[in-house]
Fold this protein.
Amino acid sequence: MVGWSSSVRWIVILPMLVLTSAVAAQTDPNAPQSQLIDECGTLVQGNGCVLFEGAGGRYVVVASGRFQFGDAVRVVGTIDPECVTICPEADGCIRGAVLYDPARLPCGTALPNFPEDIVTGVCSSLSAALLALAVVGLRATRGWATPASRS
């Protein structure tokens, strides 16, 4: 990287550091194992919190939407057994919990592709293309010479 400016070096080094730390976090054997949940159960009142009670335990649900205590719900999300909560009776939290009415979307049935899913997919695809265009634009405006050919 001789001849590269310090900002270009950081642009190259920073993504490498982020990727390295992400790989290290995924391979940590002591990291709590999160698992996906798609289960039917009931909303119950905890000690200052809303809990989803299903066959797998009692989990904190941050936003219950239009549902109330005692309602049967279908919850889809990710269980975090190591979350910090004020509910001593909770077995963990459900991250990204989305609640559905089991009368409309019963447990065991596939969830339809909602417009949000389509938008997320399109945005994810476009982000990689925009990043590539930004890199090409930077290279085009600053020249295509390699650091070795500048000296």
